[in-house]
Write a structure and sequence with these properties.
Layout: H1 7-17, E1 23-28, H2 35-42, E2 49-52, H3 59-72, H4 84-95, E3 109-114, H5 116-119, H6 126-136, E4 144-150, H7 153-161, E5 173-176, H8 182-191, H9 198-208, H10 212-216, H11 224-233, H12 242-250, H13 255-264, E6 271-272, H14 273-280, H15 285-297, E7 301-304, E8 315-318, H16 321-332, H17 345-360, H18 363-369, E9 377-383, E10 392-399, E11 403-409, H19 420-437, E12 442-449, E13 464-467
Parallel strand pairs: 1-4, 1-5, 2-3, 3-4, 11-12, 12-13
Antiparallel strand pairs: 6-8, 7-8, 9-10, 10-11
Length: 468
């Protein structure tokens, strides 16, 4: 099956495959983003050994599944291992056997352990046994490529990548798999024979968030809006309960994470940590800090700065489209049909916010389309403290070449029309920004849309246009 995008990730795997030394590769990313698919398809499902952890299983169940995989790949032991040390001892014996499968390109033995966090059950010796397996055996095998994978990103980071024990400095390659871009979503839709206008492709991203698994569920016999109703709003739809499953699969105690996400969802520009503590009426600032870090690591939120505030006063904002959509329409409003709310005030409010998130997730593409890919830049937001009426800019690109792009992000059915009122609003924003920041850099108003800006007597205020 074709692997869409992922060029850098495939290059990394190929580099490890041709390496002349032992390789320990960690692949991580949120649920349904395509980690297992990437590894399995890259190696054409051919491994020296493959096993996966089981959700909601205790140690005995995990060992049983691991041993079944050992038997499948040629192990002679039928009895259940007593612990993980014995299980990895059997794996070592299997890898040393003459009949073990080796990659044809470089004679490598490739071991793939999928959903690693699920194997590490409470009070088990899994992590110690994996540590011992690698340090006593794997790290000395020049022909061994070990790939571990998991959706619980915070577990992978804390227990493997940032570990200060046995795994310290042992990881040879990290692959953080991100959701698809809007262009990759378009390619996947076309591969599945689902032809959509660019606006509908953008809306697909704004709802499903570039998650390949979700997009693969779309039925090409139905319109995008019909698919949304069938998959999300229908109580029997495959994604109707995905929001709860998503957080519970990633975090052992997901309640605080969900409270933070749902609090942030009511503030499109985000909240500071101190504001979050007040909203949540929490006495545990440390607990919130840990949850914020884990949500950021998993790609649900971003941490950014206001252009004129202290670097320590970060603002946290939701950037995961699917999460925002489910909170807005499933968790809070309990809407029964997506088609029935199209073009309503609720829809207009959501689509404006969701399109801004799309843009924030595509800053690299925006810079490319502005012709400044190679120009170093910082990205901020800005809120006026002095202007009346208030002024706010959700994306500022401050460039090394002494230019600042004040980005306005607008989602519309057709070309976006700048009228007299909005023209004056743009002028006021730019004036307030210049006066309050005292910047000496050139300031360009930049419109980011799907269908462009209609040329009229007011459109000259826009210096740059980007059509995503």
């Amino acid at each position: 099956m074709k692997i869409i995008g992922r060029r850098r990730e495939k290059d990394n795997l190929m580099h490890c495959l041709f390496s002349k030394k032992p390789e320990f590769v960690v692949v991580y990313g949120r649920r349904r983003v395509g980690k297992t698919f990437l590894v399995r398809e890259f190696f054409n499902k051919q491994f020296s050994f493959y096993a996966t952890g089981l959700t909601d299983e205790k140690t005995k169940g995990q060992l049983r599944a691991f041993n079944e995989s050992l038997i499948t790949y040629g192990s002679k032991y039928n009895n259940l291992p007593q612990n993980w040390f014995e299980a990895f001892s059997r794996l070592r014996e299997l890898l040393d056997s003459e009949n073990v499968y080796r990659e044809s390109v470089n004679n490598k033995r490739v071991v793939f352990l999928d959903e690693l966090p699920w194997m590490d059950t409470a009070r088990s010796d899994f992590k110690s046994a994996l540590d011992y397996f690698w340090n006593s055996f794997g790290s000395s095998m020049d022909d061994l490529l070990l790939i571990v994978c998991g959706s619980a990103t915070s577990w992978i980071i804390n227990n493997i990548i940032s570990d200060h024990g046995g795994f310290y400095n042992r990881i040879t390659k990290q692959i953080h798999l991100h959701p698809f871009t809007i262009d990759e979503c378009d390619e996947l839709l076309k591969l599945n024979h689902m032809e959509l206008s660019r606006r509908k492709v953008a809306m697909c991203y704004m709802i499903f968030g570039g998650i390949p698994y979700y997009i693969n569920l779309l039925d090409n016999r139905l319109s995008l809006d019909q698919n949304v109703d069938e998959l999300i709003f229908n109580p029997d739809g495959e994604l109707h309960y995905e929001y709860d499953r998503l957080f519970k699969s990633l975090f052992s105690k997901a309640t605080l994470h969900m409270k933070i996400i749902e609090t942030l969802s009511s503030k499109s520009i985000g909240l500071t940590r101190n504001d979050l503590i007040k909203y949540l009426d929490s006495k545990s600032g440390n607990g919130i800090s840990t949850a914020l870090l884990e949500l950021e690591q998993c790609g649900f939120i971003r941490k950014y700065q206001n252009f004129t505030t202290s670097k320590q006063n970060y603002i946290y904002q939701i950037i995961d489209p699917f999460t925002l959509f489910c909170i807005h329409y499933i968790r809070k409003n309990k809407v029964n049909s997506w088609i029935n709310i199209l073009n309503t005030p609720s829809y207009n409010s959501w689509s404006g916010n969701a399109f801004e998130i799309l843009c924030l997730n595509h800053i690299g593409k925006i810079k490319e389309m502005l012709g400044i890919s190679g120009v170093e830049s910082n990205e901020y937001a800005w809120r006026s403290k002095e202007s009346n009426p208030g002024a706010q800019i959700d994306l500022i690109i401050e460039r090394r070449d002494d230019v600042i792009n004040l980005c306005e992000m607008k989602f519309s059915d057709d070309e976006f029309i700048i009228d007299k009122k909005y023209h004056q609003e743009l002028i006021n924003k730019m004036t307030a920004f210049k006066n309050e920041t005292k910047t000496k850099k050139a300031v360009h108003i930049t419109m980011i849309t799907i269908n462009g800006v209609k040329k009229n007597e007011y459109s000259d205020v826009v210096i740059n246009q980007v059509c995503l």
